Amino acid sequence: AQSVTQPDIHITVSEGASLELRCNYSYGATPYLFWYVQSPGQGLQLLLKYFSGDTLVQGIKGFEAEFKRSQSSFNLRKPSVHWSDAAEYFCAVGGYYGQNFVFGPGTRLSVLP
Amino acid sequence: DTAVSQTPKYLVTQMGNDKSIKCEQNLGHDTMYWYKQDSKKFLKIMFSYNNKELIINETVPNRFSPKSPDKAHLNLHINSLELGDSAVYFCASSQVGVQGGETQYFGPGTRLLVL
Fold first, then answer.
1. Contact in structure between B68 and B49 (CB atoms under 8 Å)
2. A55 vs chain B: nearest CA distance in angstroms?
3. Which chain B residue has its CA at the smallest distance from A42's CA?
4. More confident residue, B98 or B84
5. Residue B63 and residue B52: Cα distance in Å, rounded?
6. Given an 8 Å threshold on Cβ–Cβ distance, is B102 in contact with A90?
7. CA-CA distance, B99 to A57, in Å (whole number)?
8. What share of chain A in percent tops pLDDT 90?
9. Nearest in space to A57 (alpha carbons), one of A81, A33, A24, A82
10. Is a pLDDT exceeding 90 seen at residue A73?
11. By CA distance, what is B110's nearest residue in A?
């Protein structure tokens, strides 16, 4: 069965520091991979997605993620974190009609001034 | 011009009551979903509809009944509400893209509190 793990439950970084959030997946076919962000009290916003092609994908708000098939990973990165990036981040793996759409448990990001 | 909208945003009710949550999308998508997010932020799919037909029905109590009057709307009706139903419910919609993958777009959520 497909699954997504996000090893870090909570990460704290200082504003201006770089960020990497880890995501590992288990999926029987070519995965479609996503990162979503949920600000406090808000819905989920799509940051970026990988379907095929270039394994380094760019997203909104200065985020990027790299798909590494050999490591079954899709880690999210940002070179310089802003205080407004404090939120919950979810990695997800999907397929057609949402049948295989599975979210990871989320990583909460705190940003120190 | 909200893409996926849900009403109400907050819902506080007593145990045993029946309530409905409405969802509408103006993206022209064929598929809509309901997710439940528990207190630990874990997201789990409940239902999926494609062109008004039920595609996915996860292990959800039959007190929960989705209704799709047309492909732009997917409502969730909950009978005999229980304390454990307290959660945030998200509606989402999606369309298969040219690359074959499907991107889901989420509504703002409905925060349900059962007392």
1. yes
2. 14
3. B108
4. B84
5. 20
6. no
7. 15
8. 74
9. A33
10. yes
11. A43
